[in-house]
Amino acid sequence: MPLLRILHLVGSADNNFYCDLSRLYAQDCLSAIANRSCYDFQIAYITPDGQWRFPRSLNREDIAISKSMPLVDAIKFLSQQNIDLVLPQMFCIPGMTYYRALFDLLNIPYIGNKADIMAIAAHKAKTKAIVAAAGVNVPHGELLRPGDIPTLTPPVVIKPVTSDNSLGVALVKQVSDYPAALRTAFEYADEVIVEKFIELGREVRCGIIVKDGELVGLPLEEYLVDPDDKPIRSYADKLKQTDDGNLSFSAKDQVKSWIVDPKDPITQRVQEVAKKCHQALGCRHYSLFDFRIDPQGEPWFLEAGLYCSFAPKSVIPSMAKVAGISLNELLMIAINETLGNLGENHLKCEQTI
């Protein structure tokens, strides 16, 4: 059986932060998938200047010595590689939208949600409107542009409408805190969402995967929050920078986050709401949603993160592991959903090794 040729799409056409973030997750993925008997991995690495590279690994040295080329030359190169499917691992807006759409145009399938769905999910206000229309609880909020005056009475949470990893997010407890919080938020986006603060409670994340066409809810991940000391999660709770300047994970230490016991009554309730969100947004293959659980146990939708890097420390693989689904099996389930019968043949190959 021929090897399945998978292109890992890595980097960022936006900025160095997202470039490093993408490389962090993709490198973790590549080093973790030990069984490559069915795979031939290729790497496409995009830099903020829009140039493409095809390094043999994601080590900085290999990236530096690889040839840089513009999009038109990259397309010519890709057309000669017989790529079976793409694993997108870009987290910037262009990476989640334009580059996925490019592979639609090239008629090369990719794992994960389509470009138009990613564009919607990247805009927190649009996502909230869609899931709210499907009957999901969302905090009352308003969308602001520079110069707009917020009308909601604190406490509220301010979020740049298109940023991830809690960049620019702030809890405003009194009206006098508004100006500074808005200035910071507008540094990350030209639109800001202000929404009612939902009292704790708990904060959890729920992953959904599609297996054999059916939605499967994964065990929840819960995050360390406290009504007094840590009412919301910050950027520092998710990522940190090491002494050598690289990014690393900070939430995966069993202190800031942990997997909820599947027998916990909140699990089934949140999974049902997450499946409703998945369907409302038109997701495929997998999805990921954050929820605030209020003191009465009611889930409130916060945001969607419709991507998975298939790195061991990524959220969906962490959840799947607790459910008895290994990283290799999780990847093959996604390949099966993407490629149909071809994926099924390779899944059999994986299972017989």
Textual characterization of the structure:
The protein has 353 residues and is α+β, with helices and mostly antiparallel strands. Helices cover 34% and strands 22% of the residues. The protein has twelve helices and 16 strands. The strands form four sheets. Strands 9, 10, 11, 14, 15 and 16 form a six-stranded antiparallel beta sheet that branches. It has a four-stranded mixed beta sheet with strand order 3-2-1-4, covered by helices on one side. Strands 5-8-6-7 form a four-stranded antiparallel beta sheet, covered by helices on one side. Helix 1 links the parallel strand 1 and strand 2. Helix 7 packs across helix 9 and helix 11 runs antiparallel to helix 12. The radius of gyration is 20 Å and the shape is globular. The mean pLDDT is 90.
Mean pLDDT: 90
Number of strands: 16
Shape descriptor reads globular
First CA to last CA: what distance? Answer: 13 Å
Number of helices, counting only DSSP H or I runs of 4 residues or more = 12
Computed Rg: 20 Å
Q: β content, as a range? A: 15-25%
Poorly predicted regions are: none
| Class by SSE composition | alpha+beta
The main sheet comes to: 6 strands, antiparallel
Helix % is 25-40%
What sequence of helices (H) and strands (E) makes up the elements?
EHEEHHEHHHHEEEHEEEEEEEHEEHHH
Protein name: D-alanine--D-alanine ligase
Keywords: ATP-binding, Ligase, Nucleotide-binding
GO molecular function: ligase activity
Pfam family, one: Dala_Dala_lig_C
